[in-house]
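Here is the promised in-class demo. Please do not try to memorize the tokens; focus on the logic of going from shape to residues.
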């Protein structure tokens, strides 16, 4: 549902005008100034995590969802010297990696007041990774690596609070403050089993690190569209992992890179039931610092920052006042982004108090 509250307000005014004979939009008796209705906060249903849809007071929404994410990498690497564009001295290595992630989640949202909403999300994750690589060795020999791993289990449970900061009067956009906490209920990359060479034997279902993300969302209605923007900062908490990877290598403190997150776009109401959304989001992820101990204690960091950018497409249809169907699609724009992320959400609303 997109802008159905605002559209419903216009329709109800028209109905009253038809019964009373007053011009549309005037509901007060003749001779009195019309009662000014406060602006109604618009809704952006088709894309999750924007933080712009607040549940009314006393309303409980249960939202089952299913998300599929696919990432693929095909890389040909040359290690050597280029004398001419057609003369290379060295070796080539080829790598192909495919990652598929299915996430089934149940999300509950409760409208505590008309301006405050609390949310709890419990995910279950299934992962399947396939890696095929050709690794050169001394001489002309090489060997192939062919690994196919899968794993499933409880993911990282998330708790979110959202608060509407203003009422959107005098032509101002609506501002919503968001605060999200991500737990470590899923198995992290240092919790899974590894062989004697330190190679993982199963896949993680969580990040392994707690995180806090404050953000702010701006919603500007321009009927029949709503423009939205979100800016946030993801703070990943460091942890002393203290895990033995191999007989010679032990991991100490790990400080995952924080991230600046932004998104913006437009939601357009086709009619009171259907809408579509077009947007873009980008995460700028800092380098991860890892302390490891071999013969001597050392600290290293990831070789580069990550730039994860995706195009956002969304569709929403309101089946009835209590149920809607939302489909979101993310298309990776940058090299670090997943190729595709497809999310189906079906929220069910009910009165809790």
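The designed amino acids, position by position:
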């Amino acid at each position: 549902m997109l802008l159905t509250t605002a559209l419903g307000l216009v329709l109800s005014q028209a109905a009253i005008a038809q019964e009373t004979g007053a011009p549309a939009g005037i509901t007060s008796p003749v001779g009195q100034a019309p009662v000014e209705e406060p602006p109604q906060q618009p809704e952006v249903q088709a894309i999750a995590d924007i933080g712009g849809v607040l549940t009314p007071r006393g309303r409980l929404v249960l939202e089952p969802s299913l998300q599929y994410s696919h990432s693929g990498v095909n890389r040909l690497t040359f290690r050597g010297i280029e004398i001419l564009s057609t003369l290379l001295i060295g070796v080539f290595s080829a790598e192909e990696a495919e990652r598929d992630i299915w996430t089934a989640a149940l999300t509950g949202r409760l409208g505590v007041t008309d301006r405050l909403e609390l949310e709890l999300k419990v995910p279950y994750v299934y992962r399947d990774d396939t890696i095929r690589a050709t690794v050169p060795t001394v001489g002309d020999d090489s060997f192939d690596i062919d690994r196919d791993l899968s794993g499933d289990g409880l993911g990282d449970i998330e708790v979110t609070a959202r608060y509407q900061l203003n009422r959107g009067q005098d032509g101002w956009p609506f501002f919503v403050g968001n605060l999200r906490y991500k737990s470590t209920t899923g198995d992290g990359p240092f919790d899974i089993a590894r062989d004697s060479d330190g190679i993982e034997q199963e896949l993680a279902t969580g990040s392994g690190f707690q995180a806090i993300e404050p953000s702010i969302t701006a919603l500007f209605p321009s009927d029949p569209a709503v423009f939205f923007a979100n800016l946030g900062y993801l703070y990943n908490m460091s942890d002393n992992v203290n895990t033995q990877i191999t007989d010679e290598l032990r991991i100490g403190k790990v400080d995952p890179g924080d991230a600046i997150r932004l998104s913006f776009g437009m939601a357009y109401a086709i009619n009171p039931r259907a809408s579509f959304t077009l947007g873009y989001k980008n995460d700028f992820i800092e380098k991860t610092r890892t302390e490891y101990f071999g013969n001597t204690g050392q600290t290293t960091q990831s070789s580069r920052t990550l730039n994860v950018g995706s195009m956002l497409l969304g569709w929403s249809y309101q089946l009835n006042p209590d149920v809607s169907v939302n489909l979101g699609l993310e298309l990776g724009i940058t090299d670090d982004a997943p190729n595709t992320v497809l999310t189906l959400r079906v929220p069910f609303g009910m009165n809790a108090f």
